[in-house]
Amino acid sequence: MPTSPRPLSGFPEWLPAQRIVEQQVVDTLRRTFELHGFSSVETRSVEPLETMQRKGEIDKEVYVVRRLHAEGNEDLDPAKTLALHFDMTVPFSRYVLENAGKLEFPFRRYQIQKAWRGERPQEGRYREFLQADIDVIDRDTLPAHVDIELPLVIADAVSTLPLPPLKMSVNNRKLAEGFYRGVGVQDTLGVLQRIDKLDKIGPALVRKLLVEEMSLSDKQADLCLSLAEIRTTDLSFVDRVRALGVSGELLETGLQELAAVVAAGIEYAPGFLIADLKIARGLDYYTGTVYETVMEGHEELGSVCSGGRYDSLATDGKTTYPGNGLSIGVSRILARLLGRELLTATRSVPTCVLVALPSEDDRPAGRRIAAALRGRGIAVEISPTAAKFGKQIRYAERRGIPYVWFPGRDGGADQVKDIRSGDQVDATAADWAPPAEDLRPRIVRP
Amino acid sequence: MPTSPRPLSGFPEWLPAQRIVEQQVVDTLRRTFELHGFSSVETRSVEPLETMQRKGEIDKEVYVVRRLHAEGNEDLDPAKTLALHFDMTVPFSRYVLENAGKLEFPFRRYQIQKAWRGERPQEGRYREFLQADIDVIDRDTLPAHVDIELPLVIADAVSTLPLPPLKMSVNNRKLAEGFYRGVGVQDTLGVLQRIDKLDKIGPALVRKLLVEEMSLSDKQADLCLSLAEIRTTDLSFVDRVRALGVSGELLETGLQELAAVVAAGIEYAPGFLIADLKIARGLDYYTGTVYETVMEGHEELGSVCSGGRYDSLATDGKTTYPGNGLSIGVSRILARLLGRELLTATRSVPTCVLVALPSEDDRPAGRRIAAALRGRGIAVEISPTAAKFGKQIRYAERRGIPYVWFPGRDGGADQVKDIRSGDQVDATAADWAPPAEDLRPRIVRP
């Protein structure tokens, strides 16, 4: 390589201290998901292109993968063309169908993996990004309490992370579809997709689209917009919908399902859930509860945790596997918080102790000290050179390593120095331990 | 999806219990690497094709990535064509050059990621596979003790894993190259690459290649083969090389470097390291110590942990960053051991306790019990239905969940049942805990 390479736009990478933050965030998510009984699944990175195209909508943004010296028509057959997955829901549905005979249902899984989209990169949108998903999938029917449980798992996970507060908006497709039918609309999905543009283009333009593109009457359009305006932190949205004077069985089911989710949020995660009746979610596989989440103070990033119920995404023709899932945009959250230095780590290495070397001949003794400390869970490096102690201490300082260990010479005791305070005490590798807060790097908000 | 999808050859995926084994293996590697002061790095999955092609040799096996609707010449320019990385050494070298001003040297990093190669799939060779790498990279020069340290870190990591014993073979490129020069060979890399085929085609055919393709005399070929036959677990290889009557400065340096590595192996990881003078490693960027590792009883899998010193892979023209690294083939090891059911997990879910529900009305009470147990680190699921208790117990049994919790009714105490033994005792969620060995699933050898 003749000159320094440059970053690729849309493919973020972290420096070591930033990566420590990412690891601890992912560790916390994983720990919470496992405490709630979710099993880890990793799917391969590629799916047949036709599997993904059948899910529609984003085929423009897919990355196709082929061998550099592919032979013959190997990658012209759409059943054989492979593409990098753009989310984890489609691969997970495929995994469930492929392994249905070997899985126990209901199946609770989490999946923390990279995904890829060939979109124009911008803040919050990357070509390679990390997602953390939880889904519950069942055979034939999926109980309604899953719609309540999933946002509570997310609330539990983020409550122990040093993030700005997250607020999750909830809606229900049945409520919206039932309402639209109640006002006499046929193409309910078409209306939903235009309502979904409210945040981007505002109510006046959405109203214009509803009237001109969807042929709604002024009254119908006004009613649909009135529904979308309803947003409450309590259960009062139910009365506000009823006050619009529209009724129907599907609408009633949606209202009850949404009320159950919001009521549980009030009880178990106060301030986290909001009934927000304009939330639509673009993807057409959602069939009931849908979720979107903003990070307070960073609303313009868009949703950082989205999902919903999909009752008919996975089916082999005989059996259907309804599911519900939520996906946290780990890269979207961390790129913002790391990029603006709102989060960092107390040091750039896992190392807690640097063993200093009086001379290169002391390296074997240093190895024994290091092994004794590591055996008790303390991360240790041995100085790479037996330079002057001042230089070895600077090696630790530059990395944020808090302690330097000086092996005793001529029968003298070992000593350990806290290089932040300068305190230096006698110590033995068999029993010295750092304070708990120094053992591992910690996430801090500078 | 009208019918069940089928697996893609070369893209292994695990069932939940297998994935638990993989997670625990990866966790152990990570913990050991961090105890030795290695920082985590993740690089993006793609590199410019020209970066990878410059490293030569495997361009046939690379997966190229392009947007499905790429515009114009976007992916005809080799500087803009992207490909999935085939290892972590090339991306890491690029990362070091790109971030040289922000990293502290020597830089110790580990990297546990997927890599991709378009090879014909067979056991031990996959198109998508997980690797766990450690490297130390420095500016200008890298001390020799790194060549000793890296295999000891691997020995430490695998010593706590339930794997068949690993045996690492070590050689030194300077030793081989110095010896070949000493016998009068010019194209030392050419000889090395043919010696590398010894295990595949045997000494008679390698001798033929050396004589016919490399124009070595019979005497030269015999000497090169005699060197390759030397394999010792102690330092006697030094005298055996000297007995061949060849000498030279580079040979002497190589002998001393290899002796230092093997001596440290004898002291710190007895039985792990073997001096094996036929080890060559195909890649031409290695410049000194090289390593290969077999898993006992599974030698035909090939090397499960390989690497070596590369003194000039990473350079920006002004500064060179010499490194040494080892890469564990996690997929190669686990596909064998999981595929033959030589390893499994004690259960298929993280869940330790299932809270049973006398009726659906008890779900809120179940949530409070679950929250109390989770708060103390115990993984809990709440029964998905308030079916008959027998059915709820079978839900736990099928997943290997060891405990079922029965909420007390009408003021009675809660009870917890070990469904393996049938023992059932009074318990309170605020202080009950399972025995340590039941808290999380464990890896077992059936």
Short structural summary:
The first copy, chain A, is of the alpha+beta class and 446 residues long. Among the domains of chain A are: 166-295, Bira Bifunctional Protein, Domain 2 (BirA Bifunctional Protein, domain 2), CATH 3.30.930; 353-444, 3-Layer(aba) Sandwich (Rossmann fold). The first copy, chain A, has helices at residues 16-35, 49-53, 89-98, 145-159, 173-182, 188-195, 198-212, 218-228, 237-242, 249-268, 330-339, 363-374, 389-399, 436-439, and strands at 39-40, 46-48, 63-67, 82-84, 107-116, 128-137, 166-172, 231-232, 273-276, 289-295, 305-315, 320-329, 344-345, 353-355, 380-382, 403-406, 414-418, 424-427, 443-444.
CATH superfamily of one domain in chain A: Bira Bifunctional Protein, Domain 2
Number of beta strands of chain A = 19
Low-confidence runs of chain A: none
Put simply, the count of helices of chain A is 14
Shape of chain A: elongated
The CATH topology of one domain in chain A is given as: BirA Bifunctional Protein, domain 2
Largest sheet of chain A: 9 strands, mixed
The interface involving the most residues is between: A-B, 95 and 94 residues
Q: Assign the CATH class of one domain in chain A.
A: Alpha Beta
Specify the structural class of chain A.
alpha+beta
- Beta-strand share of residues of chain A: 15-25%
Average per-residue pLDDT of chain A, rounded, comes to 93
Kindly report the spatial arrangement of strands forming the biggest sheet of chain A. 1-5-6-12-11-10-7-9-8
Family (chains A, B): Belongs to the class-II aminoacyl-tRNA synthetase family.
Enzyme class (chains A, B): ligase
InterPro entries (chains A, B): aa-tRNA-synth_II, aa-tRNA-synth_II/BPL/LPL, Anticodon-bd, Anticodon-bd_dom_sf, His-tRNA-ligase, HisRS-like_core, HisRS/HisZ
GO molecular function, one term (chains A, B): ligase activity
